[in-house]
Design brief:
The chain is mainly α. The protein is 52% helix and 0% strand. It comes from Marinobacterium marinum.
Length: 77
């Protein structure tokens, strides 16, 4: 099992997205979830594999859970 701490940048790479600081900030600005009722993995902008990864990370408390939770908080503010 990988016990390393994952970074925000590594999460974006894992999701197949641009992972530089400017791209991450742009993604967060343009993909805000304005309702707390929308769960992160249910957002319409994820493809099926991305949504499954995010749901699994949080649902199974994987080693990605902390950084996925950080993304969730960033998109819901």
């Amino acid at each position: 099992m990988d016990t390393s701490t994952h970074t925000f940048s590594a999460l974006f790479e894992q999701l197949g997205l641009a992972s530089d600081t400017d791209s991450i900030q742009q993604f967060i600005r343009t993909h805000q979830l304005f309702s707390s009722e929308i769960q992160l993995h249910e957002a319409s902008f994820w493809n099926e594999a991305q949504a499954a990864f995010l749901q699994d990370a949080l649902g199974n408390d994987s080693d990605w859970a902390e950084v996925v939770d950080e993304l969730n908080n960033s998109l819901h503010t």
